[in-house]
From TrEMBL:
May play a role in septum formation. Signal peptide: none annotated. Belongs to the ParA family. It comes from the Bacteria. Residues 62-247 form the AAA domain. This is Chromosome partitioning protein.
Amino acid sequence: MVSRETSTNDTGYVVRTAADLAERSQSFQDDTTPLARAVEHSVRARSQALRTDGMQRPDRTRVMVVANQKGGVGKTTTTVNLAAALGQLGQRVLVIDLDPQGNASTALAVDHHRGVPSTYDMLVDGSTLAEVATESEELANLWVVPATIDLAGAEIELVSVVARESRLHKAIHGHPLVGSLADVGEDRFDYVLIDCPPSLGLLTLNALVAGEEMLIPIQAEYYALEGLGQLLETVDMVKQHLNSRLTVSTILITMYDARTRLAAGVADEVREHFGDTVLKTSIPRSVRVSEAPSYGQTVITYDPVSPGALSYLEAAREIATRGIKA
């Protein structure tokens, strides 16, 4: 099991990270027993500590691309929950929804019907990032550029545009709140998270050209690494020809089921292959994580003490303390 911190209560049971607690959640449904009360107390204490311990802001904006062309790996879920977690931890976060499905916009409760200022207007019509970004009314320290259905045709419309692969880079780095503390000041964005579509088309290429870091969510299941080679080849090509600063800084294991040997085996294989690039924190398979978007929420607000919420908070802290790899 993936574990970073432990605390022992008077029952003798060792309470591990949120991903480990998910394995035993069924055992703690009766909160009338001393064991259940002790575990609940430990979880709530961990939740409080995660949310209140101070966290230093980066000295410049970190632009992170969240991508994996394999669908169903938790890409959008990871984007929105990390954004919400970082916001709760005092970081100023901008989410750019680059997926025409607009699922990130839905989960962050941002209007994305046709006609609202959106990613499409920024990429195709040349609107500035400041003109299309909207501040979240539900989540602290969070701004969103929503995706509308118009974005589905953007790749075709951009075919004849000069430097079409650099449109997003120009928009992001032209924003007055993207940059270093010295150049921008305290109002700067600490993180820009770009949620990519599950493909390697022009929209994803724009993200790879714009970003400095790449976060790849990998599902803890048998076909987890399928297609990853193609994605990494694309990243290498972008580094060689379009964006030498791009690096795969973070891999996050998602949908981890600690009850199965398969999940542990996949996690071990990923860690063996990618080493320290893989976060120590893994995200457990969780009904709460899946339910939250249908209520227009992230799991961070939908169920703040659930294993999924605590795991994303832990992952956010780990990303923040790592900084950017050399």
